Amino acid sequence: MAGRDVSCDVIRDVIRDVTRDVIRDVIRRAGCRAGLTSVQPTLIIDRLAPTFHQADSMDTLEKHAQAPDTRTAATRWTTDRAAALFELTFADLMFEAQQVHRAHHDANAVQRSTLLSIKTGGCPEDCGYCPQAARYHTDVDNEPMLSVDAVVEAARAARANGATRFCMGAAWRSPKQRELEPVLAMVREVHALGLETCATLGMLRPGQAEQLRDAGLDYYNHNLDTAPEFYGEIVSTRTQDDRLDTLARVRAAGMHVCCGGIVGMGETRRERAGLIATLANLDPYPESVPINHLVPVAGTPLEHQEALDPLEFVRTIAVARITMPRAMVRLSAGREAMSDAVQALCFLAGANSVFYGDRLLTTGNPDVERDHQLFARLGLHGLDPQAAPARPAGAMPATAAA
Ligand code: SAM
Ligand code: DTB
Ligand code: SF4
What we know:
With 402 residues, the protein is α/β, with parallel strands linked by helices. 44% of the residues lie in helices and 11% in strands. S-adenosylmethionine binds at residues 129-130, 132, 169, 171-172, 200, 202, 222-223, 225, 262, 292, 294-295, 297, 333, 361.
């Protein structure tokens, strides 16, 4: 249409039509699947929308799919439902995860975040996994906070290597105001480089989230780490409710939430399901979900913890993908010890983000060259910051939104 603009209304109508077609296709596939196995239908239907619970025909399902967006209440992911996903055969679980993944993301894209420890060691907390807790005798030395210039230099290098997000971590229980000031300057400068910004500084006091937001912070990382019932076995100096308070402050300030956990700390499969269900029930669920495999560090209480079966780690990624369809699921700590084949399975299971760069905070990560080779072998390409998914409007899978 030479000389005329396409109106927003037309674009919106086209988006609505395309979305409806995608939903129909998903439902058709779900229906086929329901006919093929005896266990899947409720899981698939539950995932599409809570209103589908009573649906008994494909017609009813299609009618619901065309209904207006009903995302008012969060879809509840009970531990039982998440545990049922873990119990699927590996092939069935991967198939489910792939379908959800492809309905919401480019399956060949991987988002890359680079981490930097801006204040290392000497933390007063007792997290049993952490080499930075002052009370454990690890090889980590306490270091003063990095200068703003040093942080900006590291951020420039990360950008040059292809990272799109830069995450600054500090070994604090909770930052004091005088400690936060230089972090605000770091955030401002990293933001000015055109990178997405993320920080993980411990628990935030009232008003601190707003200051970080105003400085240009896009994401705040604060993990739930493990299932509520296992949390006390791992950390005694704070409760998981304290973590939830900080997450609520981050949300209220309007920042994106990055929140996940660690697996392989001796928890049961049911507790892994409990962690994922708790994350998925946050309303809305986090935009970014780091799934860490414990890095057992000498001197920490978990140094001799036996490694988890790698396929169980892959399953955890798949369950996170299915229960939090629009989130970026990050294959996080533990990659250095993982074979390329296991990492490839994680991407197939729905991981679409990694920590990128040869260090995490104090431990190692695959070097950039190894990652380049892996991504090339898998045909994965980097994801632009602009291509990251929109904030989830609720814990409801996007497939239900017509
Ligand atoms: N002090 C802040 C806090 O605890 O939120 C920020 C830094 S803390 C190191 C960030 C996260 O790193 C933890 O929540 C945990 O999930 C992860 N982490 C720490 N040590 C780890 C380890 N040995 N293996 C895997 N993940 C670890
Ligand atoms: C997250 O979930 N994992 C990252 C990041 N958020 C801050 C940290 C992993 C730390 C692994 C241990 C270390 O390097 O000290
Ligand atoms: Fe401190 Fe965070 Fe490590 Fe816990 S995980 S000891 S709060 S740095």
